[in-house]
Structure formats: structure tokens, C-alpha cells
Design goal:
This protein is α+β, with helices and mostly antiparallel strands. It has 3 domains: 171 residues, no CATH class; 233 residues, Glycoside hydrolase, family 65, N-terminal domain (Beta-galactosidase, Chain A, domain 5, Distorted Sandwich), CATH 2.70.98.40; 197 residues, Glycosyltransferase (Alpha/alpha barrel), CATH 1.50.10.10. Helix content is 34%, strand content 27%. The protein has 16 helices and 29 strands. The chain has a 9-stranded antiparallel β-sheet with strand order 1-8-9-10-11-18-15-14-13. α11 packs antiparallel against α12 and α13 runs antiparallel to α14. The radius of gyration is 26 Å and the shape is globular. It holds the Pfam family Glyco_hydro_65m. One of its GO terms (molecular function) is hydrolase activity, hydrolyzing O-glycosyl compounds. Keywords: Hydrolase.
């Protein structure tokens, strides 16, 4: 009998492969779309906020504010906040408004190298329009939309900036005023609002930038703009520039957002653009992956890196949610997705960004200790879903919030791994209490068995289909790693070593049956949501025997849910098969880690083969780990990165890592 689930998987795989192949160009830095069917936008983000592209001319879909949370009446928990849509433009030519249904030759290109979305289209026989949008990488609260018009005839244009306020903001107030300092006149259009529960104030301000003579701006129906006659064939360019701020970051967001507009006004279009491009150039210089011989893989890898880099900033003390700054998916909360799936990529290529993820957890350590106390444990128990408060933010109906406790180990392991890469003892001393408190949690959490071994009972596993289980493989393995890492750190720092850390680390159960490591006590071969046992071979160091790794790999690769399972499982399988020397299977799983989950027209990641919730940055992290820690032969040891010879798919000529590790090495693997 045919396997119906396999048929569905193949169908989805082919459909989205077709969508993506029809809409891309063979350029390692640019992805273009000419079809607006089933459109999924891309976040033009700078680590502070994200502006999601739209297929409608001269507007964007939404703005996502990083690290800004407010209670959501819909689900009873916190949710990341949408911001004011402040760069929208209403353009009329000869008194005819440009709309989605009266344009032709639409094309949109994502320039990953520069972090810019470029859209072009024709408006009847009157003009050709180019429209670019960016969230300024150099100025974290700033953004700009640039419009270029090439008249096909003599025309009159009317361009007005308007701002949309999402439903989750209230008490919106708009104003337009012309500020003056000596001879300088500075027109500023602003909108301010508060979040629904009044937790934060949000403000956005804009102004117009012109290449030549500044146009007189008018404020009409809460929109600001100008009217101008253009001559046939004479290119005309202007921009709407400004910023968006919240009271989370600054005391007076209205004033600061106005300063963003004024700064842009004094700098001009080209200088603001140059600052942005230079900031992105520095990022790529310090962390890039280059594939020779496979333009499709190169595009997708760069797109994954672009999105990860877009969603976080060094020194921001913020982490990354599963959907980054692309949507309110998973309420913008921070999960193990940050530490286990995205952080290892950042640690290798952008360690300053990786450190920000750790700073986020360090700042919330006291709340993790409070959670442990609430449930009768010692040490620190990190929340499964975390927001700005550091308290548990998981919906109360979800068992993961109380019982998916491996998150505590995921955090601790990430801290230790940062030390192994940097070998910074001063940093380790400052952050040692995170390791100590997480180790103390597991000492209070384990149960001693009659034979002297230790169990961890009643948990939700990394395989979340496994609820209320005992001795889950990954939970137990990660606890072992946490305890052993804490011991190593204590010895390096000459700190006291709790004898219980050693005893429990050496006696926590990892169960086997018929030569296979067991997912949990009593596991009977059920379908699993995602990799669990296999994580003990990578990224943990619990199972190191090659024969055992291969047995577990072959067994559980057939147990993973191929329809609803998230993308991360295939990424892990790719890493492990590469490490086992099987480049064919490693490549198959590498492709499976992204292609079935790619959505039109740019190939943005969705969480699973049949879901439609892009952009799933977690999946991008897993795919990139397949490159770095699989094909690339990179191994993270207690002494830092170790570089093996790697192994490449047959079709790749070479794989190059630029700026890997704290010393920013360049590594090349040739086929």
C-alpha cells in the first residue's frame, strides 16, 4: 500500500520547489520574484525592529518591535508588539492613485548583501517606479523608503506619507510640525500611541529627503506630502526617512523618533544609505559561508544567514525568537530555539551576537531562580517561553511551560560553549553563577533509584510528542552535560565543586533496548516530533561511539514525523550523516531541512512541510548547522573549535567559511 503521508510530503516538496525556482535569479546575493501569488514577505530588519515586505506597491505589511511585549487579550499571555507602519507612501500620477491592481511588470528583489528590498513596476504608460526599503543597520531606530520615478511622459505626481496604527496600539495621536534652528527648517510628521495595557509608549516620525530642491510639504487628512511636475525621461528621486522608538529603550520615544528624522534630513539619502550598506558589509566580512558549484544552495544559505543576522544586534542584551522579527509567531517569545538551534551558528560566525543571547538569560537569572523556588526546587529553572520579564510566558494549557525542563540545560550549555570558544576566564568568572545555579537545579530535580542511579521523571522531552515521561534521553543527557560543564568551570576558576554534581552526572540513566538508545523509559517505537536521542551525539557529547551513533541515527530517522515535524530534525540528521562520512545522506537531509519548508516567492522558511508560518529562523539555524558542524567538519571542544577535513556533496566544488571563531579564521574545504 502506498504511504499517504509520503505522497503529501513529496507533493508539498515539489510545489514549493517549483514556486521558488520560478521566482529566483541566479545571483548569489539577490533573490527576485516576479509573481505575487501566495506571497510571503521578508523582514527587512536591523536587530531592533523588522519591516515586513508586502506585494502591494509602496507599502509594507507590518512592523515588529524587538523585545517589546504587552499582555494579549486574545491568549492571556504576553505577545511581541507590532509597531506603527510609518513608511507607507500614497503615490498619484496625473491624479490617478497607484494601487495593487493597476500596475504591471512587478518585480521585487531581496538584496541580502545590503539588507534592502527593491521593488519595480510600471504604472500604465506614464512612468516606471522603483521603490526600496531598509531598516538601517547602522542606526538601530532608523529606516528609510526610497522612491525613484522615471516618467514616460510629462506628468504630475502627488506623494504622501501615511502611517497605519495596528489594533494593538491605542490612543494614537498624529501631528505635523516644522521645526526651526537658525536657517534650517525641519518638517517632521509623527504618530504616537500606547500599547493596549499602557505598558509602553510607541512613537514614529518621518520626513522627506530630496536630491535637489526641497519641496513644500502639506499636511492633509493626516498625511504629509507634496505635488510636483516631472518631465519625460528625467529621473526623479525622493525618500521618506525617520525612526521608531519605544519607552522600553528611551524615556521619551516621541522626541527620539523626531531626532531620527532630523538626523536623516541633515545627512541625506546617500549618506544614510552608505552607513547602512557599510554596516552590512562589516557583518558579511566577519561571517560568511560560500559554496562553489551550487548557486541554489548558496542563495538559500545566504538567505538563512541574512535572516539570522537581521534578527539580533551585538550588545543589545536581547535574544532571538523562533520567528525573529518577521512576525508575532509564537508570540515572539524566547525558547530553546535560541540556544540550541540559532546560537551555535552565531557562536561560530558572529560571537558578539551570540553573547547577546547569553546576556538576555543572565539578566533574567533571578526570575529563573524564583521559578525553581515556586516548584519546590533549588537553583535556577529557566522558563520554556520567556519574554521581557523572564517569568514563564507559556500559555497555561501547554504542559511544556512546566515540564519541558531541558531548557535549563540548553541555557547552561550555551554559556559553557561561549567560554570554550573565547577562553575568556574573566567572562567565565562573571557568569559562573548561571552554570552553578542550573547544576544545583538538577541536583534538586533528580530522583535516586534503589540501585544508586538517578532518574529525571515526569518531563516533556525534546520530542514533544513524549509528555509525562521518565528518563527522556535528551533531558537526561543535557543534564549530564550541564553538571560536567559546571564541574570543569569550577575547576578552572578554583571554585568549590559540589560532590553531588559529580555523583549525579556519573549516574543519570541513559536507557538502551535491543542496542538502541531509548527515547524515554517505556518507549515503544512511536512516531517522534523531532530529533531527541540523536541530539546526544550532536550537539551533546554523551554518545561518542560511532556504531551506536549509526544505530540510533538509522533507527530514529525513520521515526520522525515527516509531515508535521519541524525543520530542525533534518538539520541534525545532516550533521550526523556528514560526521559518519555519508555525504549522500547528509546532502539529502540538508535539502530536506529547507526545501519542503520553503514558501513563495523568496523561499522563506516555514516551520514544517505543511505549515505556513514563516519566517522560521530556528529552521534556518538547523540548516546552517548542517553546513558548519556537518559538511564543514567543525567540532566544538572544551578548548575551542577544532577543524577537521570535512566532507562535501558531490556537486559542490568547495565550501568556504569566512570569519569563523573568535579569531575569525577562513576555512576552505575542497572536493
Amino acid at each position: 500500500m502506498l504511504n499517504f503521508k509520503k505522497i503529501i510530503t513529496v507533493t508539498i516538496f515539489l510545489v514549493y520547489s517549483s514556486y521558488f525556482s520560478q521566482n529566483k535569479v541566479s545571483d548569489e546575493w539577490n533573490i527576485s520574484a516576479t509573481s505575487r501569488e501566495n506571497y510571503n514577505g521578508v523582514a527587512m530588519a536591523n536587530g531592533q525592529f523588522g519591516i515586513v515586505t508586502d506585494d502591494t506597491p509602496l507599502r509594507h505589511k507590518e512592523v515588529i518591535l524587538g523585545g517589546v511585549y504587552e499582555a494579549s487579550p486574545e491568549n492571556g499571555i504576553s505577545r511581541i508588539v507590532k509597531g506603527i507602519e510609518f513608511l507607507n507612501i500614497r503615490l498619484k500620477i496625473n491624479n490617478q492613485e497607484i494601487k495593487s491592481d493597476n500596475i504591471s511588470n512587478w518585480q521585487q528583489t531581496i538584496n541580502m548583501q545590503q539588507g534592502i528590498s527593491n521593488t519595480s513596476f510600471d504604472f500604465k504608460d506614464l512612468a516606471k517606479i522603483n521603490y526600496s526599503i531598509l531598516a538601517n543597520r547602522a542606526n538601530p531606530f532608523a529606516a528609510m523608503a526610497i522612491v525613484e520615478i522615471i516618467p514616460e511622459k510629462d506628468i504630475t505626481i502627488s506623494a504622501f506619507n501615511y502611517m497605519n496604527v495596528p489594533d494593538e496600539l491605542k490612543d494614537a495621536k498624529k501631528n505635523f510640525r516644522v521645526l526651526k534652528d537658525n536657517e534650517f527648517l525641519m518638517p517632521v510628521f509623527g504618530t504616537s500611541a500606547t500599547t493596549l495595557e499602557g505598558k509602553y509608549n510607541v512613537a514614529a516620525s518621518t520626513t522627506f529627503l530630496f536630491d535637489g530642491v526641497k519641496e513644500d510639504l502639506k499636511y492633509v487628512n493626516q498625511e504629509v506630502g507634496f505635488t510636483k511636475k516631472l518631465l519625460k525621461g528625467k529621473k526623479y528621486r525622493f525618500a521618506v526617512a525617520g525612526g521608531i522608538c519605544t519607552s522600553k529603550d528611551v524615556t521619551d520615544p516621541s522626541n527620539e523618533s523626531e531626532r531620527q528624522a532630523i538626523f536623516a534630513l541633515q545627512e541625506g539619502i546617500d549618506k544614510m544609505l552608505e552607513r547602512h550598506k557599510n554596516a552590512w558589509a562589516e557583518l558579511w566580512k566577519s561571517g560568511d559561508i560560500q559554496i562553489e558549484g551550487d548557486i541554489d544552495a548558496q542563495q538559500r544559505v545566504r538567505f538563512a544567514l541574512y535572516n539570522l543576522y537581521s534578527f539580533i544586534r551585538p550588545n543589545s542584551r536581547q535574544s532571538i525568537s523562533p520567528m525573529g522579527l518577521s512576525s508575532q509567531g509564537y508570540n515572539g517569545h524566547i525558547f530553546w530555539d535560541a540556544e540550541l538551534w540559532m546560537y551555535p551558528v552565531l557562536l561560530a560566525l558572529q560571537p558578539d551576537m551570540a553573547k547577546s543571547c547569553l546576556d538576555y538569560r543572565y539578566d533574567r537569572l533571578e526570575k529563573a531562580k524564583q521559578k525553581a523556588m515556586i516548584y519546590g526546587y533549588k537553583g535556577a529553572m529557566f522558563p520554556w517561553e520567556s519574554d521581557d520579564t523572564g517569568e514563564e510566558a507559556t500559555p497555561t494549557w501547554a504542559l511544556t511551560g512546566i515540564f519541558e525542563q531541558h531548557i535549563t540545560s540548553d541555557v547552561s550549555i550555551a554559556f559553557w560553549n561561549y567560554y570554550t570558544v573565547t577562553q575568556d576566564r574573566d567572562w567565565l568568572r562573571e557568569n559562573f553563577k548561571v552554570l552553578k545555579e542550573t547544576a544545583d537545579f538538577w541536583i534538586s530535580r533528580v530522583v535516586k533509584n534503589t540501585d544508586g542511579s538517578y532518574s529525571i521523571k515526569n518531563v516533556v522531552g525534546a520530542d514533544e510528542y513524549a509528555q509525562h515521561v521518565d528518563d527522556n534521553a535528551f533531558t537526561n543527557g543535557a543534564a549530564i552535560e550541564t553538571l560536567k560543564n559546571t564541574i570543569r568551570a569550577a575547576e578552572i576558576l578554583n571554585e568549590p565543586v559540589n560532590p553531588a554534581w559529580k555523583e549525579v552526572a556519573n549516574k543519570i540513566i541513559i536507557q538502551k533496548k535491543n542496542g538502541i538508545t531509548q527515547n524515554y523509559d517505556g518507549y515503544g517505537g512511536q512516531m517522534i516530533k523531532q530529533a531527541d536521542v540523536n541530539l546526544l551525539a550532536y550537539p551533546l557529547h554523551i554518545i561518542t561511539d560511532k556504531i551506536q551513533i549509526e544505530k540510533d541515527l538509522d533507527y530514529y530517522s525513520e521515526k520522525m514525523d515527516k509531515i508535521d515535524g519541524p525543520a530542525m530534525g533534518s538539520g541534525i540528521m545532516s550533521v550526523l550523516y556528514a560526521r559518519m562520512g555519508n555525504s549522500d545522506k547528509a546532502y539529502d537531509y540538508f535539502v530536506k531541512s529547507y526545501l519542503p519548508n520553503s514558501r513563495p516567492p523568496f523561499g522563506v522558511f516555514s516551520e514544517s512541510a505543511k505549515s505556513n508560518n514563516p519566517y522560521f529562523a530556528t529552521g534556518a539555524g538547523a540548516m546552517l548547522q548542517g553546513l558548519i558542524y556537518g559538511f564543514g567538519g567543525v567540532e566544538l571542544t572544551d578548548k575551542g573549535f577544532k577543524y577537521g577535513k570535512g566532507i562535501l556533496p558531490k556537486k559542490w566544488k568547495s565550501l568556504k567559511f569566512v570569519g569563523i571563531g573568535a579569531d575569525e579564521k577562513t576555512i576552505v574545504i575542497n572536493n
